[in-house]
Specification:
The protein is α+β, with helices and mostly antiparallel strands. The chain has helices spanning about 5, 20-30, 45-50, 95-110, 125-135, and strands spanning about 10-15, 55-60, 65-70, 80-90, 115-120, 140-150, 150-160.
Length: about 170
């Protein structure tokens, strides 16, 4: 666990009661302009409906990060393909928490039958791209000018991770 042991952090399943902490970390990510196209955090109900019921995690001493998966499509053919979201409170960046949370999310996604994980990351978010690559994701391309943020077209780097345990038949 490296740096995590020093902080006595645990990773546990995200619960509805965690929402205000999760929301504050999400808002901090939104404020960077490098984490998402979203401009505000949703309500718990909207967030809860947008992400798969499992796996979802928080890193806690107090809650310092969260990770969850959302479906990439409602079509049944994509039922076991999910989009990754990982957010860590800024004061905890660079301490190994993102890696621990993402590795836990990957492992639990396989336990839940998910065979492909996708991530779309702004090219400027070099730390997140590096984190995903260190956890077995590979860059599959760039979606150029895929969306506008504050009237500026933004690109997204698309990464994916294919399970070697699930969907191999």
């Amino acid at each position: 666990m490296g740096n995590l042991a020093r902080h006595a952090l645990q990773i546990r399943t995200l619960a509805a009661e965690d929402w205000e902490f999760v929301r504050s970390i999400y808002l901090a990510g939104i404020a960077t302009g490098q984490a998402t196209f979203e401009t505000k955090a949703p309500t718990w109900e909207r967030w809860n409906n947008a992400y798969l019921p499992a796996p979802r995690f928080v890193a806690i001493e107090c809650i310092v990060g969260w990770a969850a998966l959302s479906p990439v499509s409602a079509r049944s053919v994509y039922a076991d393909v999910a989009e990754v979201s990982v957010y860590i409170a800024s004061k905890w960046h660079g301490q190994g928490i993102g890696r621990e949370v993402l590795e836990t999310l990957v492992n639990e996604s396989e336990r839940n039958g998910i065979w492909t994980l996708q991530a779309s990351i702004f090219p400027e978010n070099v730390a997140s791209i590096s984190l995903h690559k260190s956890c077995g994701f590979r860059e599959v391309g760039t979606r150029e000018r895929i969306g506008k943020m504050k009237d500026v077209w933004r690109d997204m780097i698309v990464l994916e991770r294919r399970s070697r345990l699930v969907g191999c038949d």
